[in-house]
Task: inverse folding
């Protein structure tokens, strides 16, 4: 290496794709697909003391080099690379000045795009691989079942769309529900087109197949076969040939390549045989191949449409227009033209176009479609409404607070999308198999042809068996096995009010062995109210209550909100609070009317230097009755205690019992006092209780259970639960809880029904069972079918029919989850 760097300068033998201070990646045409030269370059580079790491990709002729710029300046490294690659062999020379460079210093962005033009699961794998090769893209997942791509990278949306379009596919931004509706409409048109192509292909192929099976001697019948099958191969099969050609130019292949090779070879061979007056013709086989594959694609499109019904029903909730009041005049505008701050008029029976806050009017709103809550919810001024829900008998004026991708409904759709697009660990293994499957099948087909010729068979027989091998292989079934089941499973969960953030959660939820419950707002209804108020200060009850409530004004905690609600019921005034500090799971501190006010549990007040010795008996009495004591101190002295009660959820005992029947260990871990915690635990049926648990203690318990070998679920609703929710193998957030809890969790129980935890676990187990069934049959099919075809036991037509049906069977098997 050092010797190379001393040679005279020469033109660049490579293209610099991107560079950082300590890393460069180059593409050298002379190394592309040349294993020996690429690895020779890697070995020589590694010998240099300044080179830390080298990663070679022979398929691309790519080398990524991590180096120490202090020992080897970038300019010298480029010179070394130029001499090294030139020494290994001459090739096209690219000027460094003309090299394509990318700015990788900007922020990363997340995109969800629709991808049109994918005809099978191997298409999705190809797009994903091509995306990951771009240095600007950090992460890419493409799902054929949902026809979506989830991408994170340092490029804008327009560049990303152009990148995908370059490979022969169409990318569609999915930033709003309206754009998603456009994609669904396109899918319906594609289904209609698939039906039309199959219909005419079948009409023309049927008589050709009949003639081929009858094997008449008259040459006129052979010319009739040619005429009948020409539209099938040249028109109906045109998308297969177009896609195969585009992939060939990218040096890639997929299932379209196999179909194009099989049908094209059969048809081309038959034309030559017809013109040279040979008897072995395969016109009917070429047409039959196309017809059966088109039938499979049509049935697959139809089945995938059914599997996406959950997403479709959510998107259909949003109306296309909104009634907007501007300067007192009503205007009907498209939903995409609505902006934050607009005033909407909602009439009785209307669907609410987008999220907003009621400004005027009183009505009830049916939120069951979004939250699963069956009873209509009363909406009055100051309350929020969710887009897509149905208004009741009253009229309302609503101020728009969110539009497009920021709405609750769009967030739910995006969450379901992300879950459906996620790949389980088992799917990543399948992808690696599928990536080499098509080239492998082409090699086996060639060996089959050569093998039959070697044993003395005729060219026609060898050719027929080689074509059958091409057609019987089905990476589509392998590629669809996991995403089809995930798509249906997550869709079914969404219909039940359980929104899953990612597909891995499905796999983890099926194997949970311990579930930790928070108390307030999780096992209880989250609507605590003050039952007792004991005041030992010199202030009147109303004045002390006003000071305590004022301090709690900025608190998000249920108990603080209960104190504030109690003050309002007692018509106590609310003052301005300053220097507010909240410690999750402990309490708050603030200044009200120049007094320092401390409210919270015993640990918090003791930590603040407040003595509670005189309050111990009172607190024990309250806790023994299932009430949570909240202390209040003024000027460093405890002056009052609130006894706050929160009713256990009616379905909590049922939820715990169901988990116990599934063999799941349950624990109640709460920051509340022990007596109140045991009171609720006894009511719902939980035996293990940890009280006085701060957020860090909840996190420790999750880790302790995981060290014991258990997969752990955590259910909570508050900021104090967020660390444990994030650390748990599966975090369940209560939909009515804080935003940070829902952002941290893996699953959201939209309307707080904790019986859905067991239901989600059951659905997860069913989904994994379906995935394993799909993979078993897909692998079994290929393991048996390819040798059978190679040994001449399948005709090309039967092989193409079996290939098409294998993909359809995987999707249909996944749809069984809809009956759960």
Result:
């Amino acid at each position: 290496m050092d010797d190379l760097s001393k040679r005279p300068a020469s033109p660049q033998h490579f293209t610099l794709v991107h560079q950082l201070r300590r890393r460069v990646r180059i593409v050298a045409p002379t190394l592309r697909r040349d294993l020996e030269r690429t690895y020779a370059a890697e070995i020589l580079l590694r010998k240099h003391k300044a080179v830390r790491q080298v990663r070679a990709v022979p398929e691309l002729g790519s080398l990524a080099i991590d180096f120490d710029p202090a020992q080897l300046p970038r300019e010298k490294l480029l010179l070394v690379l130029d001499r090294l690659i030139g020494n290994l062999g001459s090739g096209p020379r690219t000027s460094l000045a003309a090299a394509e460079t990318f700015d990788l210093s900007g922020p990363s962005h997340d995109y969800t795009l629709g991808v049109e033009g994918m005809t099978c699961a191997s298409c999705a794998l190809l797009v994903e691989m091509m995306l990951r090769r771009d240095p600007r893209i950090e992460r890419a997942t493409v799902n054929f079942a949902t026809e979506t791509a989830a991408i994170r990278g340092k490029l804008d949306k327009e560049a990303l769309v152009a990148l995908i379009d370059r490979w022969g596919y169409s990318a569609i931004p999915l930033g709003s529900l309206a754009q998603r509706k456009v994609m669904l409409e396109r899918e319906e048109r594609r289904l209609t087109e698939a039906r039309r192509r199959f219909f005419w292909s079948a009409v023309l192929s049927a008589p050709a197949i009949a003639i081929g099976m009858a094997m008449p001697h008259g040459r006129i019948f052979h010319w009739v076969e040619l005429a009948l099958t020409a539209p099938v191969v040249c028109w109906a099969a045109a998308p297969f040939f177009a896609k195969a050609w585009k992939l060939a130019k990218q040096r890639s292949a997929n299932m379209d390549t196999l179909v194009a090779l099989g049908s094209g070879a059969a048809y081309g061979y038959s034309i030559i045989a017809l013109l040279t007056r040979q008897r072995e013709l395969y016109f009917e086989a070429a047409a039959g191949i196309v017809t059966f594959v088109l039938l499979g694609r049509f049935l697959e499109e139809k089945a995938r449409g059914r599997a996406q019904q959950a997403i479709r029903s959510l998107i259909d909730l949003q109306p296309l227009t909104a009634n907007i009041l501007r300067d007192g005049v009503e205007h009907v505008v498209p939903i995409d033209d609505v902006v934050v701050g607009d005033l909407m008029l909602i009439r009785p029976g209307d669907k609410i176009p987008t999220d907003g806050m009621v400004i005027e009017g009183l009505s009830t709103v049916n939120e069951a479609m979004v939250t699963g809550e069956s009873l209509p919810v009363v909406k009055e001024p100051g309350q929020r409404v969710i887009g897509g829900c149905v208004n009741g008998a009253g009229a309302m004026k609503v101020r728009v607070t969110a539009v497009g991708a920021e709405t609750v409904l769009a967030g739910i759709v995006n969450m379901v999308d992300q879950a459906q697009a996620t790949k389980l660990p088992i799917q990543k293994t399948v992808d690696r198999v599928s990536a080499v499957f098509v080239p492998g099948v082409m090699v086996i087909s060639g060996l089959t042809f050569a093998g039959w010729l070697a044993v003395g068979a005729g060219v026609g027989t060898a050719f027929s068996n080689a074509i059958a091998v091409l057609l019987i292989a089905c990476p589509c079934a392998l590629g669809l096995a996991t995403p089809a089941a995930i798509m249906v499973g997550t869709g079914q969960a969404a219909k039940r009010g359980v929104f899953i953030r990612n597909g891995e959660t499905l796999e983890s939820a099926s194997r949970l062995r311990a579930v930790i419950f928070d108390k307030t707002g999780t096992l209880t209804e989250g609507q605590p109210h003050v039952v007792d108020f004991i005041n030992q200060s010199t202030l009147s009850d109303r004045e002390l209550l006003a000071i305590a409530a004022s301090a709690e004004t900025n608190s998000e905690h249920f108990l603080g909100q209960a104190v504030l609600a109690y003050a309002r019921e007692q018509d106590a005034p609310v003052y301005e609070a300053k220097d507010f500090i909240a410690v999750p799971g402990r309490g708050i501190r603030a200044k009200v009317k120049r007094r320092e006010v401390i409210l919270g549990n015993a640990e918090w007040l003791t930590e603040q230097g407040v003595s509670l010795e005189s309050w111990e008996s009172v607190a024990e009495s309250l806790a023994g009755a299932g009430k949570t004591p909240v202390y209040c101190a003024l000027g460093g002295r405890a002056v009052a205690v609130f006894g706050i009660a929160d009713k256990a959820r009616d379905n909590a005992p049922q939820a715990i019992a169901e988990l116990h029947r599934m063999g799941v260990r349950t624990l109640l871990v709460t920051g509340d006092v022990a007596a109140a915690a045991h009171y609720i635990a006894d009511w719902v049926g939980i035996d293990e209780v940890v009280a006085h648990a701060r957020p860090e203690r909840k996190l420790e318990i999750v880790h302790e259970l995981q060290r014991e070998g258990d997969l752990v679920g955590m259910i909570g609703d508050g900021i104090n639960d967020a660390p444990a929710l994030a650390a748990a193998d599966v975090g369940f957030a209560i939909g009515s809880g804080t935003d940070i809890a829902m952002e941290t969790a893996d699953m959201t129980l939209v309307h707080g029904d904790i019986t859905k935890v067991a239901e989600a676990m059951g659905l997860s187990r069913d989904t994994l069972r379906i995935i394993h069934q799909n993979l078993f049959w897909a692998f079994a099919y290929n393991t048996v079918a390819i040798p059978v075809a190679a040994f001449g036991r399948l005709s090309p037509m039967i092989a193409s029919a079996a290939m098409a049906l294998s993909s359809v069977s995987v999707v249909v098997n996944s749809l069984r989850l809809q009956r759960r």
